[in-house]
Design brief:
The complex is a heterotrimer of chains A (286), B (117) and C (138). With 286 residues, chain A is α/β, with parallel strands linked by helices. Chain A is built from 11 helices and 5 strands. Chain A has a 5-stranded mixed beta sheet with strand order 1-2-3-4-5, with helices on both faces. In chain C, 41% of the residues are buried.
Chain lengths: 286, 117, 138
């Protein structure tokens, strides 16, 4: 776009910020979006700030590429704007449409001031559209990232809740695993297990994988890591709850579990664990 | 020169590492320990690392090598008291200290060595 | 992209004792930022490996420790620089178990496994820079 046309846009925004924001707010009300007093004043304030930054930065550049350092401050503002919408439960489309909705009132201003210069009007409309499109898309981008953060944080919290370590007997712990094992979860599992070994002085930990749907090479690797870490603390592990299909995949994948004691059921593993720690079960009825 | 003290308890040698370990210190300890195994005719070596907040590949190798050397000199080595975070880090690093016996604490370590006799 | 905040701390690395000091500093910084004990230990171990490389292969150098802020994440960055001989084959140097100096060959590959981000830059005859980062949600 030409330097001339950008100056035109900046000049138009200047002095008209309040009117533009008012029109935007009216438009948004008409679109029937969730809109309470608090968020209205916040959106007013943020869009006014955005317009200020635009009139400041548009004349400095000929590029709509937001990666240009000129736009750093604008991007920062859009990031805050997006994060605020995430918290208020807006959808990405609603968030971006607030930015897109600024286009209409600006077009109106352009049409009014450039009625007798149709050629320039067309150019201005094109550049304005391009600019606001990139701004709007950027908010979607940031919005998505913020949502991903929220999700991964929740995953983290879920992880910590879902890996109990229970003491079965003196010196014997059990770790019933439910669901799959990725590297993040493995770390949590290891931490919980090792901490419990320290607290109880356990000699044996039974890792029960009845609730693990599949064991691929990666899951097997994570299991072996957990076993190795427990061993470094002086505790042995037994893996129990191995279903026939899992035994088959383990062998097909060539995973080496030779140095690990494995048992079909938790009960079998428990008997072995008791024997190893010097305890035994007798049947009193016999 | 800075040295890590080695205590004798009957036929056992006990090393409690309570200083910040660095490479030179680790090498000195390895030499001192092998010397003492022969001199004291020790049958077991306990290395208490409960005060160590990290074990990197160098210290890990020193521990493995010391255990291997002790074995040649007919002494069994038990590493005791490893911190959970240190164990997790070592495993991530790919250093499982295979061939080294481990125990939760000194008491358990002594019991392990006693079993052997 | 991500920028280290101002006020990076610089630690010289010319002796075993310097490595011990660096480990202490990394522990303090990570603890102050609220990193868990496992993440602290992983990062200190990675720092220890890289500091040893700087000392052994780079004939000494320094480590810059900086804080990162990329809301909602915060992080720590360690940059090890030396003007040693550089690394000829970086792929090989990053292979588990490969060593040119009689070690276990876990220095570079270990630091990579223990950190969240790892970046290696080297020029033959000019030196090596290794950057590692660890992130957490603030």
């Amino acid at each position: 776009m030409s330097q001339d046309s950008t100056l035109q846009l900046a000049g138009l925004i200047k002095g008209n910020e309040a009117a533009l924001v008012d029109e935007l707010i009216t438009a948004m009300r008409n679109k029937l979006m969730r809109f309470d007093k608090a968020s209205e004043s916040e959106i007013r304030q943020q869009t006014a700030q955005l317009l200020k930054l635009l009139e400041l930065n548009i004349p400095k550049t000929t590029t709509h590429n937001l990666n240009d350092s000129i736009w750093a401050e604008t991007k920062q503002l859009l990031t805050e704007f997006s994060h605020a919408r995430v918290k208020q439960g807006y959808t990405p489309a609603e968030t971006a449409s607030i930015i897109f909705s600024l286009k209409e009132p600006i077009f109106k201003l352009l049409r009014a001031s450039l009625t007798d210069q149709p050629q320039q009007l067309v150019e201005e409309l094109a550049t304005t559209t391009a600019l606001f499109d990139s701004l709007g898309l950027y908010t979607i981008d940031v919005f998505q990232k913020a949502r991903e953060m929220v999700i991964s944080r929740q995953q983290q919290e879920l992880l910590e809740l879902s890996t109990p370590v229970v003491q079965l007997w003196q010196n014997v712990l059990a770790l019933p695993l439910i669901g799959t094992l990725d590297s993040a979860r493995t770390q949590v599992v290891m931490e919980n297990l090792l901490q419990k070994i320290v607290e109880t002085g356990a000699l044996i930990a039974i890792i029960d994988i009845t609730g693990v749907p599949t064991v691929d090479t990666l899951v097997a690797q994570h299991l072996l890591k957990t076993i190795a870490a427990a061993r470094l603390m002086g505790a042995d592990c037994i893996i129990s709850g191995i279903r026939p299909q899992i035994a088959q995949t383990i062998v097909h994948l060539g995973v080496n579990l030779e140095d690990v004691i494995t048992k079909a059921t938790l009960a079998d593993a428990f008997v072995i664990a008791l024997k190893k720690t010097g305890a035994s079960i007798t049947n009193s009825a016999a | 020169m800075e040295r890590i003290p080695i205590l004798r308890m009957g036929s056992l040698l006990l090393v409690t590492i309570q200083v910040d370990m660095h490479d030179r210190l680790a090498m000195t300890l390895q030499e001192d320990l092998t010397d003492r195994i022969v001199k004291d005719r020790a049958k077991g070596v306990l290395i208490d690392i409960s005060a160590l907040d990290i074990v990197d590949s160098f210290i890990g190798r020193m521990i493995s090598n010391t255990a291997a050397m002790a074995k040649i000199l007919d002494a069994k080595t038990v590493v005791v008291g490893m911190q959970p975070a240190v164990a997790i880090t070592l495993v991530e690093l790919g250093l499982a200290l295979e061939g080294v016996s481990t125990a939760l604490n000194v008491e358990r370590g002594i019991a392990m060595l006693a079993q052997r006799e | 992209m991500k920028t280290a905040e101002s006020g990076a701390v610089v630690m010289p690395l010319y002796s075993d004792e310097d490595v011990v000091r660096l480990r202490k500093l990394v522990r303090e910084e990570l603890a102050a930022l609220g990193f868990g004990i496992v993440d602290q230990t992983k990062m200190i171990t990675a720092a220890s490996e890289l500091a040893r490389n700087t000392l052994k292969y780079g004939k000494g150098g320094e480590c810059h420790l900086g804080k990162l802020n990329e809301s909602p994440k915060i992080g720590v960055e360690l940059v090890f620089t030396d003007d040693g001989p550089g690394i000829e084959d970086t792929a090989l140097a990053l292979t588990d178990g490969y060593t040119s100096g009689g070690g276990l060959g876990l220095g570079l590959s270990g630091a990579k496994k223990l950190s969240d981000e790892f970046h290696l830059e080297t020029r033959l005859g000019e030196g090596t820079t290794v950057t590692i980062r660890k992130w957490k949600f603030s």
